[in-house]
Amino acid sequence: MAAVGSKRGAIVAHTYSVSEIVGTSSEGTDAAIRSALDRAGRTIRNIDWFEVVSVRGHADESRVLHFQVTIKVGFRLEDPEES
Q1: Spatial distance between the Cα atoms of 75 and 37, rounded to a whole number of angstroms
Q2: Residue 7 has pLDDT above 80, yes or no
């Protein structure tokens, strides 16, 4: 996937790599997504977007114990001159 942006008036095309990760939370799907992005952000630079792939959870009879959200995380690959 490539995105086009503006850098000092010039058109810049970005190239992304995508990783699929799973975030979990007992609080809900939003917290699971935030947990996944927070953890990914500690080791991956240039995260620009995410996409929810699936939502599932763990239950005990009729009670939700925790949520699991699978997301794809898109991070912009660095150009050699940006390193």
Answers
A1: 11
A2: no
